[in-house]
Specification:
alpha/beta; globular; 5 helices; single chain
């Protein structure tokens, strides 16, 4: 099965904001970014089923691309930034922040989750997806989900995650 994962378009938050699972608005550039994402998706060929994170930045792009009824699945939400949600990284005074920066893969965010926990959540989604009869699906999700999916597919290692983060509106393709 081919899985096409598309990252949501640019959120309208100040740069450096931890917005993880907060439902944030999109920038005014939504349509120009969405046009490119839709064209890239259409170039992949028809899909049999569509999934989306339940957060509006993903459902909005799914609808724009022709999938207003995409199946919502909370397992493909962004990492839970817990107590850091909607704070600027530069303004977080939690001493645990430095521990997280030193090992963001295994260290839980205060009141939230670690990347490994997000990866396990995404893996459960992909494990279930493999049991479906479809040949090609599209998943509208978040940067962390796209990184986790690439790790799951053996395309990158966890340490390569930041360098494999697609741009807003970007897509990656994996094979299950």
């Amino acid at each position: 099965m081919e899985v096409i994962l598309i990252r949501h378009t640019a959120p309208d938050v100040p740069p450096g904001t931890c917005y993880g699972q907060t439902d944030v608005p999109l920038k005014e550039t939504f349509e120009e970014e969405a046009v490119l994402a839709k064209a890239a998706l259409e170039a992949c060929g028809p899909v049999d089923h569509a999934y989306t994170s339940p957060l509006s930045r993903c459902t909005h792009l799914a609808a724009y691309c022709g999938y207003p009824d995409a199946e919502r699945d909370p397992r493909i939400m962004e990492i839970d930034f817990g107590e850091w949600e909607m704070k600027l990284f530069d303004e977080i005074t939690d001493p645990h922040l430095q521990v997280w920066f030193a090992d963001h893969i295994h260290t839980k965010v205060t009141g939230g989750e670690s990347f490994i926990e997000q990866y396990e959540r995404v893996s459960r989604f992909l494990d279930e997806l493999k049991r479906q009869p479809w040949k090609r699906v599209v998943v509208f999700a978040h940067g962390g989900v796209l990184v986790a999916a690439q790790i799951y597919a053996g395309l990158i290692t966890p340490e390569e995650g930041f360098s494999a983060l697609p741009p807003y509106g970007g897509l990656v393709r994996i094979s299950l």
